[in-house]
Amino acid sequence: MRGFARRSTVEQACDWIDEQVAPLSAESLKSVDAVGRVLAADVISPVNVPAFRRAMMDGFAVQAEDTLGASTYNRLPLTIVGQSMPASPANVRLQRGQAVRIMTGAPMPADADAVLPVETVEISGQQVEALDAVAVGKHVGEVGEDIAADSVVLNQGRRLRPQDVGILAAIGVPQVSVQRAVRVRIVVTGDELLPPGSLPDGFQIVDSNSPMLRGLVARDGGLITSSEIVVDQPDAILSAMRDDVDVVLVSGGSSVGQEDHAPRLLDEYGELAIHGIAMRPSSPSGMGRMDDRLVFLLPGNPVSCLCAYDFFAGRAIRALAGLSTDWPYRRQRLRLARKLVSVVGRVDYARVGVVQDRVEPIAVSGASLLSSTTRAAGFVVVPADSEGYPPDAEVEVLFYDR
Amino acid sequence: MRGFARRSTVEQACDWIDEQVAPLSAESLKSVDAVGRVLAADVISPVNVPAFRRAMMDGFAVQAEDTLGASTYNRLPLTIVGQSMPASPANVRLQRGQAVRIMTGAPMPADADAVLPVETVEISGQQVEALDAVAVGKHVGEVGEDIAADSVVLNQGRRLRPQDVGILAAIGVPQVSVQRAVRVRIVVTGDELLPPGSLPDGFQIVDSNSPMLRGLVARDGGLITSSEIVVDQPDAILSAMRDDVDVVLVSGGSSVGQEDHAPRLLDEYGELAIHGIAMRPSSPSGMGRMDDRLVFLLPGNPVSCLCAYDFFAGRAIRALAGLSTDWPYRRQRLRLARKLVSVVGRVDYARVGVVQDRVEPIAVSGASLLSSTTRAAGFVVVPADSEGYPPDAEVEVLFYDR
Predict the structure, then answer these.
(1) Nearest-Cα residue of chain A relative to residue B47
(2) Bridge partner list, A189
(3) Bridge-based pairing state of the strands A182-189 and A222-230
(4) With an 8 Å Cβ cutoff, are B87 and A301 in contact?
(5) What are the angstrom distances between the C-alpha of B83 and each of A191, A302, B89?
């Protein structure tokens, strides 16, 4: 048992992560299932939208010239010669003095050049009276006006929104090329641990980190390939760190004790880039590479595990997934109800409550209280160069609430 | 064809929704699958956490009295009589002058009352020298200190966070009672529509609303039970509106034309509470009840459909799911690059771009441009009493980007 010879800063750890993350390969996916995924290539529209001239209002398709001078005092009568519905266009060629009843979205009849809105007409039998003039092209959607064929509709790198997936359907692009999901393996170590779903038994406790990490990884766009307790033996841990995934999260055994196998194995068989970080909690965290995959060493303590995930592993997974590396939490600037103490030289992840818009630091002895993360509304990050903040100081709270 | 006799305000529509939404019934779910779900009952811990006295630091379990006066100049030797690891406790009762090597999380030996951290000792063979004094109880986690048995750990109404699910595992609660997911049926009407995945063909266009709505509903905590095009006939639409779900979204045929069956059916067989809303786009929207379920009438135009969903249907689904009824978009106050024109008497949902932190209204003729929602970075809501804003005015942008 010994301490860390030297700790890295949080900034150094984040910089290392940002240097490591390269875009993942692409995969093809049904467009309807691609909400939230990141485009691996530009999407080019194969069609014009609209594909045909269509009405943009309910009313009458006319020749605009026929409405010249129309008003409520100068009603100009037109003969209704047909009806155009979205599914059943009027099969007529419009002549002077004629009108076709038309619905929004329906195809314009040939030789019609404007739509007289329903609010500006009066209908009597087979006649419609124009009560207002309408200009050429008015309320008509021209071919390709919305989306032109062969134009780029959505760019590579775009995270698809629900409305984007709507557009993909509209232009007849049923499959898209998106970045492959980030495959994440969760490796939980600790011979005292029982799998989630068990009842705590004697000195054996139930693993709470893997259920938490599963939720966090899913939030950040990762796909869990496996999540299990691995026996605390070097062979088993090494083999798990060599799994065919993009990111391995090792929970537990991340420090410098003789039972902390993962850092030693990563150092010996891969690259242990960062080990020991000037922060609290989560100081005994580490990260590195094993062949192609990123490995994060997260402390077994649940609070430290959450903190190390949020600072480092989540950042990497979000970046690989094409999401912002920024905190995925809602932020709000609020004033402190009490002082918030920190120590110069380390970054603090201070859990806080918020009562009537005042921020109350949650007093915890050490990192260990599992309940502090559920009692907390969120947290404040106190930078390394700060001794903390006095009462009434404004701080930025990152809220856990979504 | 006629216009709306009278339009409701956006506020009236939102008020109506807020009056309708009652909590859903509960269902039991595996805790590990419950991230994001809302607790239907308080969770009470069946156990103490920790369940046994445990070390909170790596070091040596001691009797604090033995370290009294210890310093680097006054090293006090103790005899190492065992080792306590998390999975293998030391089976000894500590006596004066003795110490047990202990790891964080491991059970404290009987009669030990403090942990001397590894940083404050020097080890030589079977002896450990205390280099500092330690107080009684220091670095010891007492039984129930984190979570007391029979205490409420998480309250009814709580939306479960990843760390909450970790706690549920830790306390041995493998199943939880959560609010049932909001079951949503999407009903798309329009005989001109082809199902998503098709290629547009002649005057037939591809339904883009159901893929979009699927993404929006999933975002808001709803579970799509079915999503399909229904033939534009009263019987078929009525039957779909009577499906065994919590919310029915009817896309298309929401206005007052003769082909707009849904509002008439809702009025006749259920309750058409709101129809026609003073807003742009989405003015021909409606909502009501059919027996136990909420029905939203969304315009077929994709932009209007998105807008009406975001203002109304999404609000209801989020409320039923136990989420905030607030907009689920990131907000930022930014200045307008150009003026943003609106009309007094209606709420405007103005799509905007953001270039170098300046807000640029997207000029669109009418509601119809599908591409405007993907070109837009987000939108600005202009209230009914506003004529819009001059250049440089600060507006709140709601960003589509997640």
Answers:
(1) A200
(2) A230
(3) parallel
(4) no
(5) 15, 24, 7
A191 CB neighbours in chain B (<8 A) are 85-88
Task: Give the pLDDT band of residue A1 (cuts 50, 70, 90).
Answer: very low
Contacts of A166 in chain B (CB under 8 A): 208-209, 211-212, 302, 306, 370, 373
Nearest CA in chain B to A53: B203
Q: What is the pLDDT of residue B225?
A: 96
Decide the pairing of beta strands B26-30 and B175-179. antiparallel
Interface test with B, best of A53, A152, A161 (most B CBs within 10 A): A161
Residue of A51, A219, A259 lying closest to B162 (CB–CB): A219
Q: How far apart are the first and last CA of chain A?
A: 39
Query: Using the beta-carbon criterion (under 8 Å), do B302 and A104 form an inter-chain contact?
Result: no
pLDDT at B382: 96
Query: Nearest Cβ partner of A107 from B2, B203, B257?
Result: B203
Distance CA A237, CA A239 (A): 5
pLDDT (mean) for A359-378:
79
Of B2, B52, B370, the CB nearest to A49: B370
Indicate the pLDDT class of residue A368, thresholds 50, 70 and 90: low
pLDDT above 90: residue A376: yes
Q: Which domains does chain A have, with CATH numbers?
A: 10-24+181-320 (3.40.980.10), 26-49+145-179 (3.90.105.10), 54-141 (2.170.190.11), 330-399 (2.40.340.10)
Helix axis angle for B209-219 and A162-170, nearest 10°, is: 160
As a whole number of angstroms, the distance between CA A350 and CA A282 comes to 12
- pLDDT value at position A23? 79
C-beta atoms of B205 and A170 within 8 A? yes
**Residues of chain A found within 8 Å of residue B368, distances taken between Cβ atoms:** 56, 141, 146
Question: Rounded to whole angstroms, what are the CA distances from B278 to A55, B139, B283?
Answer: 22, 64, 6
Dihedral pair phi/psi, residue A130, rounded to 5° = -75, 125
pLDDT at residue A369 tops 80: no
* pLDDT at position B166 over 60: yes
- Looking at the partner chain, which of B46, B49, B172 has a beta carbon nearest the beta carbon of A198? B172
Give the model's pLDDT for residue A372.
82
Among B271, B226, B283, which residue's Cα sits nearest to residue B20? B271
Contact A370 B170 (CB under 8 A): yes
CA nearest neighbour of B240 among B210, B211, B216: B210
Give per-residue pLDDT as tens, A11-51: 999 999 999 998 789 999 999 999 999 999 999 999 999 99
The answer to whether residue A206 scores a pLDDT higher than 90 is yes
- The answer to whether the CB atoms of B301 and A104 lie below 8 A apart is yes
Least confident residue range of A130-134, A140-144, B22-26, B363-367: B363-367
Check if the beta carbon of residue A10 is closer than 8 Å to that of residue A282: no
CB contact under 8 Å between B365 and A169, yes or no, is no
